[in-house]
Structure formats: structure tokens, C-alpha cells
Amino acid sequence: MTPSGPDLLRLDGLRKYFPIRDVWKRRIGWLKAVDDVSLTVEKGEILGIVGESGCGKSTLGKTVMGIHRPTGGRIVFEGNDITDLKPYESRELRRELQYTYQDPGASLDPRWKIGKSLDEPLVIHTGLGGAARRERVSDILSAVGLPESHLDLYPHEISGGQQRRVGLARILTLQPSLIVLDEPTSGLDVSVQATVLNLFLDLQKQFDLTYIFISHDLSVVRMICDRVAVMYLGKVVELGPTERLFGAPRHPYTRSLLSAIPEIGKQRITDTFWLEGEPPDPGNLPSGCRFRTRCPLAEPQCAASVPPLVEHLPGHADACLFSDRAVPEA
Amino acid sequence: MDDLLTVADLEVGFQTDRGLARVLDRVNFHVGRGEIVGLVGESGCGKTTLARAILGVLPANAARISSGVIDFDGRNLLAEDPQGLATEVRGRQITFVPQDPFSSFNPVFTIGAQIDELMKWKSPDSEPGAAARFYPRVRRRADRGRVLELLRTVQLPDPEGILKKYPHEVSGGQRQRLMIAMALLPEPQLIIADEPTTALDVTIQAQILKLLKRLAAERGVSVLFTTHDLGTAYEICDRVTVMYAGQEVESAPSDDFFAAPRHPYTKRLLESLPSREHGISGIPGQIPALIDPPSGCRFHPRCTRVSDRCAARRPDVTDAGPAHRVRCHHPVGIVREAAS
What we know:
The complex is a heterodimer of chains A (about 325) and B (about 350). Helix content of chain A is about 35%, strand content about 25%. Chain A is α/β, with parallel strands linked by helices. In chain B, about 30% of the residues lie in helices and about 25% in strands. Chain B has eleven helices and twelve strands.
């Protein structure tokens, strides 16, 4: 990598395995949701993590946050190892590192007014008095573009786009430096999605934020991320600058993913799409490269060992032995 | 006239505690034979209500159909006896592919048992309306052959094995393939697919769209495809109709629609798709409440081309090219009326 700023967050061989148990609660295997993921997040950048459902992108975000305890590997935040913090130690950290859930409507207490939901994190994390807290809340509320009258409304009284704004405001009151956004635009209509995305970008500039942007929507990721990591079944298969990754994807999975997005005015994907089959069962993974069962480039070597993430171009790495080859025409 | 389905001036409201929500406002809409029509709009625009009105499954206690005609293959679905429609039309000539393949199977029966149940009542060999208490062995055998053949057509691996499985044992993509197969089994004339790929990943979505497009063409079935995603509409639709807050605003053949949208709402909607040309731009304002909707054209409070006429009267249908119909007083890209 060519760091433009200091690394805010570094993951070293991070693993999160979930046990698979039979009816007698005996462990019969491991579900490797995140398997040996190493990457860095630089200060001030937006790192996109994309992949299909079940690829482990949300588990990765939650493990970084400390919601899941990692099975192995290191998480280093601002130079400090935060992998195995005790609960009271991690409380301090929560101010710096924040996570937004997929569905803000479900993460706001339906019986609390918006104002109370926004106030709560300040009560927990700061020693501010009532007046100072109210001032902070109203500052943040105007930053996310909501009128002050919304403080007296209940979550069900506002729209989905506004609920996302509240979810974001709730996090920003603590002035964090890294925010994990987990599918922040899923379930929104395109016209609302656009305004929410613009808000993310504005707030990033205003508060000097770093985002980890987890999404399955590639066109959104392309618009707002600086770098993108593509995950498939718990592994990062390709990592690179957005423009290069979308312009010249190397890993065959990335290529198939990109060729599956409908683009208006271009050739129809229903004529060109070539990938067959569905992802294998994550509890019973194929040996070697996990994509080889669907990969048009697969060779016998692919089954022998897991291909490492290798930097073929500066800053652009992929985990494929044959990523220089073209995909045969379907 | 070779339209299979014509909806004319359909007005549907829902009774709520706060009054009547006017969900569909004089909607005009048609589907030709063998045509794939996309019904596009944001959530709450009434596309699912329209699809349900055609199927005849609107909740009878709340829905009020105050006027309009739904003409399907020469019969007015709103005037006929609901019992007769249930046996002769619904599930037989008009079938349905749901949005969520996860909640559309009964989890306690095998997939095979559920498909048999469908074929018992709706098999093309069976007499509509005949008591289906008995399922003659001859027909059962013929139907089983037909089912297996169709499961192979929708590219499901090991069809015999899948029939013995329970719904939770197959993946989301496979479940949606099963749903498409079940929609095709009664050999319908029209399939209503309500956001069939929304719950799926992009690579699976591409496979399902490809399948739906191919099967519709091979079998000459019309498809009404509702979606909020303009990209998927571009993929498979021959014609696209856009709805906004219960009014249809524009309808055009796919190519013309995406190349030269005429209605300001359609244009803004296309521009709000993330792309490098337009950057990220949304539509300011919010979708109106349907209890007390704006008068005239319901888009006028958010429209940049608004004039007094827009609030006073709902625009009539005007032609904006071959088979391109738009409902706007000030359509985009057409000779502008001077300062009106």
C-alpha cells in the first residue's frame, strides 16, 4: 500500500469462526465467516467492503467493533491493539469507533422520542450537563439536515430516510473518528438514497470522518468509496483503488460481480452474464480457492492451496493464480 | 386490438382511521400479448396495489374500488363473480411470482407436496371449477412429468431430489426458480412478477432475469414486472410504465424510455441512479401523503417545471413519440410552450 495518511485501523489475519452444532449441541464443524482478513484503513478515507449476502462482510464490521470476539488475528486501532479489551476498557474506545446498523428503524427504541435517543449516548459517554447536551444534540441535528421539531417525534412518525439521519446523528454526537456503515442505503428508494449518500460525504468533510462502507450495492460503492475490498465466503479476494478495481477488475469473482450489474444504456446483462451456479455452503467450503467451483478459469492447482492476496499492481491486490487470463466467452 | 390486459381509469382507495387513502388515481395501463411490461415506481406509489387489483386479491374489508375497468382477454374482472374468477382466472390464466421467496412456501410441507397441491387444482389438464377432492392417478402421473420437465427448464439441479426437500433446504435463488416454475405450470397468459429479484444478490438476480426473459419469450407469456429498480427494468422489459403516488405518469417502449424520458419525474428518477455523469443527485421533497394528495398532477409540489395549470388539472395523456405516452403539461424535450 502507499499510505497517504497514517493507518487508523489495521487488521492482521483477522478470523471469526462460528461453531456449527448438531441437535446434541456437539460441534460438528466451523462456519468460517471471516477467515484470515488483513487490511488497513487510512485516516480520512472511505473503504468499501462489498460482497454477496453471506460473504462475511457484516461479521467483519461487527468483529472490528468488538460486537463479536475474534477467533484469531489482531485489530490495531490508532496504534493500540484492541483485540482483547476488557469491557470497561472498550467503553472508552466506543466513542472513537461507531457502528450503524442496517435498519435504523429497528435500532431506535420505538417508545423513546428522537430527542431522548440522541441524548442517551451523551449521558453514557460524557459528563456534560443537560444544557450542554441539548446544545450538542441540536448542533448535530442541523448537521444531518433535520428540523429541531423532530426531537419530539417518535421513530414511527418519520420516514426511512429520516430514520437513517437520526441513526447517523446519534453516532455523531460522540464525535467518533471511524464509523462502520453497514448497508446504510438498503431499503431506500433511489431518490432518497442519493440525498443520504450526499449527507455521508458532507459529514465526512465536516467532521473529518473515516468510513468503512459495507454494501452489496456496487454502483453506490463506486460512487463514494476511495478503496474497495471484495469479499467472497469470508476471504478478501480483491482489494484496490475504486477506479482501478471497477475499471479493470482482476479476480474472476470481481469480474462476474461487476458484469451482473444492470447498466442503463449498455449491453443487457441478460445477454452477457456468464457466471453459473450459486455460492457453496459456507459450512462446507471447497479446498483451496473458494471460488474454484464456479470459476471459468479454474485449474487443478486451485484446489491444492488457498491463493494468497498478492499485490500485482501497486495498491491493487487479488487472490487468484490466473488473474492475468481473460475469461472465456460464454 | 391485441392487448391482453387493459386497465382503464382505475381508482382504488383504502379505508383508514384518518380517512380514505387514495392509492390509485384513475390509472390507465395495458399489457400486450407476449409483452414484458415493467411497472416502475418508488415504494408507496401503488404498483403492488395495481398488481393486486388485477389479481383480485385486494383486502375486501379495506379496499374501495370506486371506478374503472380491468379488462383481461375480453372479460371485465371487476364486474364478474369473484368465485368464478378464483377458479377460472386467478392461478390459471394469471399467475403470480412473489417478491419474497422465503415466506411464500409453507415450511412444514415438502416442496413436492406443495407443487402437487397446486397441480391438483390448477393443472392445465384439469377442468376449472371441478371438485378437486380426488386427484386421478392418470392425471397425477402426467402432471408429475410436466413438473419435472419444467424444473429442468428453470435449471434446477436434480429435480426429483428437490421435490423431496423442505423449503429451508434450498437457497434463495433456487426458491425463486421454483416460484417461476410454479407460475408457469398452469400455462398462464399473464404472469405478475412483484419485485421478483429484490431479495436476491446481483449475480443470482442476473441469472433469474435471464431465465424469466427466456421463458417468457419461448412460451409467449406476457409478464407484468413490478420493480423499484430501473436497472432491472432496463434488462428485461419491452415497455416501461412509471407510476408516481398512485398516478401513471409515463409509458414508453424500453429504448425510447431510457434514451428520452419526457416526464420531469422520470427524468429526475433516472438521474438519481448513482452514475459518474450525474454524480449523486436526489429529488428534493417527499412523496405526498395519500390521505390528502396534491391536486392535479401529484408530482407538482416537487417539480421544477411546475405552473398553475399543474395544480388545477391532471394532465391528459399526450403522445410524445411512437407508443410513448406521457401525462405532463410541460414535458421535457418537447417544444416548450412560451412561459405558460
